[in-house]
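Sanity check

After download, print the first record. It should look like this:
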Amino acid sequence: MELRTKRRLTNITIGLLFLFSGIEYAVILPTIWAYLQTLDAEPYFLGLGLSAFSFSGLIASPIFGHVSDRLQRTKAIILFANLFEIAGNFMYFMGYSKWLLLGSRLVAGIGTGAGACIFGYLTRSTTTEERATVFAVVMAARQAGLLIGPGFNLFLRLCNFNLGPFKVNKYTSPGLFMCLMWIILQVIIIFMYYDLPLVCKHNSQRRLISAVEEEEPLVHDDDDVNYAAAENNRYGSINEDEKSRVPPTNEVDGENSTVDDYHYIPNGHIDEDCKTNDNPFHNFSATKEYLREEVVVVLTAQFITLFNQTALETMVTPITQKYFQFGELENSLMYCICGVEVIAGFFLVRWLSTRFTDRVILAVGLVMCNISCIWCLIFLANPKGSFAILLSEFVVGVFLQILGLPFVAVSQVSLFSKVTAEKTQGFSQGFRRSIGGLATILGPMWAGGLTNNLYVMLGVMMGLLTLLTIMMILSYSYLVEPPPTQISTVNRSMDDDC
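Expected structure tokens:
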């Protein structure tokens, strides 16, 4: 099978994994509160159930990412992680008690750790120019799952039969359904996902291996001088030993180019001439890597936006039940409509990312989030008025919140991949996802206990957004990234020396 075909199948499988994770969230979230009520659970169990899923993912993500960095393989890790998704959803289906349901979300959350391996793989296989675009597509796949998921709830809510000793109804059927879905994905991964041959490079920028396959000439651009200088200042100039590893230029389509800057090894091994160290964590320092100003700002954006998002999501279901008498059907339709908006937002960001830098997109997203939080604080903290007025205020608040989400989500992930070392991206992405996991734990727990005191809940959220906005303004100049032209003059100077 050709490498191009393998890569295409692998990318499809990655898309399906994120699609299924979105479907799981969408089929379980609208009914978990009512499910807990049937098990005589206290109100705070809603926050615990949502947080348990994130807590186990918080622990698993850096571990799986660290292993993938060392092994430079992801397939076995993803297969192993999916076993927890299968087991956790089956436990959710059993539903004997509120504690078993809580444990089911804890077990299923371990499976989300595979996302760190995938983001590490995507970082290593894309250029900085296209990275935001690729991340937007992957995140859109999850949002597509959030859109499709409520559609499954339309028929899952009709289930009412026995399967052996287990009762299948509108509350337990989402667990059984997702268990089957993850089993199907397990089979798809076995036959369609490939650990592609390792590719290495000699400079700080990457080019897609497809450029080698298609024998496209490498075009140098003088606009990269500034970025090359910045890279040299930040990481140090290239030493003579590194220069000696760069192959001579090859003749491709009648033009000189360094297509061999990528070493594609058909048998899947790394070319010893370009492998600098077997251990990607050699001389690695977490404090030096993650306590830099630009990294702290991006991680803070990750935490605050996810904290606010999950807090609002936790608040939505009780509000719709209290003021609008929404049931499972109405909530599912609401999440379906929200999914359409989010997907449209991700594709808008995908288009904008080819024209604006990540930090500009992040700034726009923060403005939208601030406007949304101010609106909710004014109109939703103490709702008053007729049904039509209340519904209109609620719709506008949700619309504004969802509108800013894709801008912040894509830009901060893309920026993080650019301001951290590429060789340890699996662990770094796991660390980033752990920060997000901590936010998704604290967010629901914070909101779950303050559903009757929205001024305090929304006030804290507004304070966090204000803090992030100030940090963003003060550190804006540090959130540097490569210019649109991706081939660094570092590479050109190395060729000249050779």
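If your output differs, re-run the checksum step. Summary of this record's structure: Residues 3-38 form the longest helix (36 residues).
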